[in-house]
């Protein structure tokens, strides 16, 4: 990866960002509707949190899409990244409260085959999309695009956590597993929110990158 990109390449990357966020918005609206509906039917705090995260991912993608409709997208980096951070914080607070209520035994958690299905689908779709978006943001030197990719990465963590919680409940009747999964989701969301607010966007794919690539990216940021 070169330290600088041409004007034509930048235009291409901007177009790619818009396509990525358009797909992200469409997919996550559908995912969010299904997950929240399934979570409400099953009284699953983890599944509802997963669905709400989908809607926050939509807001995050909309923020990035808006940024890249501006004449000078780089100018809007900081407010866009901070907006993504606020979305993470909101998710963490809601899911924590919902999980504590569930742990208190207010409502039993039911089985949710639909929730299991949407979690599995997310585990298939999101890794490739997050990798593609982070690579694009890295080449552009855009922290907001990379932060949005970390939203997708969080969705992968959430999908696995929710799936484990739902399976433990379905197979063994461990209703508490759902609330524990939800609290893990909240902790991950809070951590990502703090990083986004600080503008400290580390690569979620560090194992796929070498030291030379990291040094080149740092040189690009400085230039």
UniProtKB/TrEMBL annotation:
It is a multi-pass membrane protein. GO terms for molecular function: monoatomic cation transmembrane transporter activity. Residues 28-194 form the Cation efflux protein transmembrane domain. Keywords: Cytoplasmic vesicle, Endosome, Membrane, Synapse, Transmembrane, Transmembrane helix, Zinc. It is found in: Cytoplasmic vesicle, Secretory vesicle, Synaptic vesicle membrane; Early endosome membrane. Its main location: membrane. The chain crosses the membrane at residues 19-41, 47-69, 81-106, 112-132, 152-168. The keyword Membrane applies. The keyword Membrane applies. One of its GO terms (cellular component) is cytoplasmic vesicle. PANTHER family: TRANSMEMBRANE PROTEIN 163 (PTHR31937:SF2). Belongs to the TMEM163 family. This is Cation transporter. It comes from Microbacterium schleiferi. The lineage of its organism: Bacteria, Bacillati, Actinomycetota, Actinomycetes, Micrococcales.
């Amino acid at each position: 990866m070169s330290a600088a990109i041409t004007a034509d390449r930048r235009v291409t990357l901007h177009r790619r960002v818009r396509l990525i966020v358009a797909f992200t918005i469409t997919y996550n609206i559908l995912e969010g509707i299904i997950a929240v509906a399934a979570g409400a039917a099953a009284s699953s705090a983890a599944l509802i949190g997963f669905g709400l995260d989908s809607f926050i991912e939509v807001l995050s993608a909309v923020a990035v899409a808006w940024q890249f409709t501006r004449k000078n997208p780089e100018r809007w980096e900081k407010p866009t990244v901070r907006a993504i951070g606020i979305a993470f914080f909101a998710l963490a607070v809601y899911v924590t409260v919902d999980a504590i209520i569930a742990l208190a035994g207010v409502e039993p958690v039911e089985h949710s085959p639909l929730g299991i299905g949407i979690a599995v689908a997310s585990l298939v779709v999101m890794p490739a999309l997050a990798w593609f978006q982070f690579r694009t943001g890295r080449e552009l030197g855009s922290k907001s695009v990379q932060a949005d990719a970390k939203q997708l990465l969080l969705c992968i963590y959430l999908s696995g956590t929710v799936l484990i919680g739902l399976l433990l409940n379905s197979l063994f009747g461990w209703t508490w597993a759902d609330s524990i999964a939800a609290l893990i989701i909240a902790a991950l969301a809070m951590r990502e929110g703090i990083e986004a607010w600080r503008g400290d966007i580390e690569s979620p794919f560090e194992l796929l990158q070498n030291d030379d690539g990291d040094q080149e990216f740092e040189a690009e940021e400085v230039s």
